[in-house]
Amino acid sequence: MALHHHIARHTKRYVGHITKYLYERDTFFATIAVFVFLILLGMIPLNFYVLNPMKLALKDFDFNDIAYAKAHKDEHIKNDRRIVIVNIGHLDRAELGLLIETVNAYKPRVIGLDIYFEGEREPEKDSILREAFKKTKNLVGVSVADTLDNYITIRKNNFDSVLPKRGYANLLGEDVGTIRYYAPFEEVAGKKYPQITTAIVKEYDYAAYEKLEKRHKEVETINYTRAVNNEDKKKYQVVEPDDLYNNNVDSNLLKDKIVLMGYINLENENDIEDKKFTPMNHKFYGKQHPDMFGIVVQANIISMVLDGNYIKKMPKWLAWLMAIVIGWVHMSLFIRYYLESHIWFHLVAKLAQLFSVIFFAYVGIFVFDKFEVKLDMKYTLYVIALAVDVIYFYEAFVGWLHRKYKYQTIFGHHHNPLEHATNHTNDHHKHETTTHEPTTHEHH
Amino acid sequence: MNIINQKFMKRIIYLFIIAFFPFAISAQENMFVVYSIKGTVSVIENKVETKAKIGTILNANSSIKVAAGSFATLLCNETKMFSLSKAGNYTAASLADSCKTNNSSVSANYMKYIWSELTKSKGTPEKNRKNYMANVGAVGRGDINNVWVDPRLDSVNYVSGTIPLSWKAYTEAEEFDFKLYDDSKTKVLLAKTVKKKHVDISELLKLIQPGKIYYWSATVKGEPENQDRKYLHYVTKDNYVSFYNSVKQHDATETDAEMNFRLGFVLEENHYIAEAFNHYMKATQFDPTNSLYRFTFMSFKKDFEIK
């Protein structure tokens, strides 16, 4: 027999394993049972996961993080030359005032200051800083948004009068772990108040700002593209104050650019001041070190908004639809092994689950990489994981229906000791009272 | 007829464009930008030398001059970063190889990761302690680096054959800088970036001479240089034979397997790793049923990462 016939025959045979029970009534109902089970689990008001190590470990887990951590999604991304980060180190207020003036001498289009000055300090130093703020008209500063009784207020600051352009620097999710989202605007006292990156973009590229505004999103997913670390990744230009003072910086480097002034320390990887967890972390699960300084997170947000490179999310209905279709196909395969080759059932089920996770995680990463669309595969994976257990429950249930109401089912006597005793044959499928060919169903 | 000629010409032009498009792409000039500098670094353009500054763009005719003890980090095509730490004059053309990027796709990287995870041997700190000891475990003072070299490789006496000079990393680093120094520990004889965590001595044979002492170090790429130098003595054959004969003599009677095992042990204690390997192997060959020999040989191979 020709090789291609051989391959075609075997392919047909294996496809047959999946499709044999695909259109059986029980396959549909067992799939529905998985979703009923899922919904019931979701309705339980108690948090049963309180001591579940898997759930706790994966609380902050996202499959798409593998795209950065292990699949090097960011490898071919170019440096963003529109943004330059100036490290403020541990300069005091007077030194910062001088640094702001020095930076401004390079004629950047906008300077974003990622530092919050809480309260008053030495008057002479505060004065120098205040003067620098007054002189620098293109400066955008930080304010702090406080949430009280679900209302957001902006904390008063003694530099407010000399720093008219401000935005809150708060990011979302630091308590949970990974910073994945930010709110571009918040309503403060009935007015729209910008996040600092929004305020910076407004000064730099009004069209990009308008585009962001028109999206009307309360929360945006941050599309991380660039990292700056003490290894080999430096996707934004970082400049030290000494280089500026010593004239080591090309005059065009900062001209007409966005200069972000914030804390960054590339000398010491153990320095975690203002360092956040991001999806770009090499270690994407379990306990880890934070990986990205706050100023670089803000830089990534700015790059995303300037490029209009927002992350699109798969609609929830599509996620459920995928879960239904894929769950149904898996259920058909599982039922086939459950009924016909029970000895292999658990092995096949576990292998199918493993390869499904690998495959669907890959599909998610591929789509995320190519189209910046985040697929929500969690329902699909839940369904695949639950399907095996639900088959047992479903079998018991239809067994009861069969005994009570003569409900016709392909499961019938399977694992039913009473019927086993009287009607057992090795081929369950041909059992005269409990199973039947798909074409001869009698629906009651 | 004219229309046919036009069509024919069009085809020829398209064919020409398609045929030469790849060359046109590859002929594109690389753009270098100075990312950071330390010390004295200058740019030479049209025979005029100016101080290199952060953000300076080098064109195809420019060259960059790095003085001794200085370094410059350059960014090629806004994607690939590399450092020049060796004093010298580098033309833009000579740096072209540094612009090469890894072409592996996200899909390929994902599959590699899945495969490596699927095939990774399991173990727990409780049961496989050696795999979980790659840490300092104490407060560090001074130069703590992310590379750890097994104390067994602290000193190596080399005569012939090959053994890997290996290390472990505390981080998930993918690239390491390996350096070979002369006996002064300062003059670098070889500096190379490697992706594996070892360099075979056979790769150094062109640079080392019998009778001389060398030092080597490994550092995670991009990190400050590891000051911990490891000793490598290229022992002359005469010296080795004399030492070998002195330890070979033994009054008690012993089998070939016992003798080889004893010699393997003594040679290992005296840092003749390649030679010890040969004797441990011979011991297992002479007496394949002896579990002590087999176990010792396997452990030896594992400890020194000999494949």
Question: Can you offer a commentary on this structure?
Answer:
- The complex is a heterodimer of chains A (444) and B (307).
- Mean pLDDT of chain A is 84; it is low at 415-444.
- By secondary structure, chain A is of the alpha/beta class.
- Chain A has helices at residues 3-19, 25-43, 53-57, 65-69, 93-105, 123-135, 196-204, 206-214, 241-245, 251-254, 294-307, 316-340, 342-371, 378-405, 417-423; strands at 83-87, 110-113, 139-143, 145-148, 151-154, 166-168, 181-182, 185-188, 191-194, 220-221, 237-239, 258-262, 275-276, 292-293, 312-313, 373-374.
- Chain A has 15 helices and 16 strands.
- Chain A has 2 domains: 14-59 and 314-440, no CATH class; 83-310, no CATH class.
- In chain A, α2 (25-43) packs across α14 (378-405), α12 (316-340) packs across α14 and α13 packs antiparallel against α14 (378-405).
- By secondary structure, chain B is an alpha+beta fold.
- Chain B folds into 3 domains: 32-95, no CATH class; 145-234, Immunoglobulin-like (Sandwich); 237-303.
- Helices cover 30% and strands 25% of the residues of chain B.
- Chain B has 6 helices and 17 strands.
- In chain B, the strands form 5 sheets. Chain B has a 5-stranded mixed β-sheet.
- In chain B, β13 (176-181) and β14 (188-194) form a beta hairpin.
- Mean pLDDT of chain B is 82; it is low at 20-27.
- Chains A and B meet through β11 and α13 of A and β1 and α2 of B.
Brief summary:
By secondary structure, chain A is of the alpha/beta class. Chain A is 46% helix and 12% strand.
